[in-house]
Amino acid sequence: MKVRIDLAYDGTGFSGWARQVDLRTVQGVLEDTIAQVMRLSEPAMTVCAGRTDAGVHARGQVVHVDFDNWTPPARSASLTADEALRQWLPRALPDDIVIRQVRVVPSEFDARFSALERRYVYRLWDSLANVDPLTRGYTLALPHHVNLDAMVQAAQHLTGLHDFVAFCRPKEHGTSIRDLKELSLVRRDSGLIEITARADAFCHSMVRSLVGCLVTIGRGQRDIEWVKTNLLAQARVNDIIVMPAHGLTLEEVTYPSDEDLGLQAERARTRREIPR
Fold first, then answer.
1. How far apart are CA 17 and CA 58, in angstroms?
2. Active site (annotated) includes residue 53
3. Which of 95, 162, 176, 257 has its CA 20 to 30 Å from the CA of residue 118?
4. Does residue 73 carry a pLDDT above 70?
């Protein structure tokens, strides 16, 4: 049985998603708690849709876990694995992790590779007089005003299929080619600026680097040609700012219909190239 778990978390108290020795991480807490409530002999093995960095939040994280040989305890002999998780897991987790949904999914489902898109939102203020102190845990306060129109213009040059190596911390044998389907900006009535990034996938630090690029443009420190030059770079560009983690939230992960899960996972595992 493969089970999908949809969850949200406040990333403030976590050293990122991925399990690390002697550090509190979302994966570590989740896997240890699953093992506890399901009475497993060792931590459960989860796979997530997007490995968030330390301090990054999530409203729409998705994970899967396999329970091929799970035997319910005598006290709950009639429960299936998903029913047991639905009943016990929310009560056992700390209050900075919330379970949204637990359900059985087809064996072809892979939380990471079956995903079609991830959507992140970065939230920031550009006027200290407008800052809402109640949002300080998930918004960034800039001490200076930014030109939103210039940032919107720059964002238009960044969308599409590109090699985003200038904006990433590349992995050996990995690829930084991504299809950035949306990079949009809106200023709310409160003055809060929301920057939405939507893509098939993101590489390490990519969203925060994209936002850093836009903020640099918004401050008038660089021009549009600098943005275009970054997209032609062959390595990480060191003068692109990586914005602080706490302003970023993973909002949503979308998947195809059940019959296309396996095909999408196969596509996602294929190393991509930019058409010439």
1. 10
2. yes
3. 95
4. no
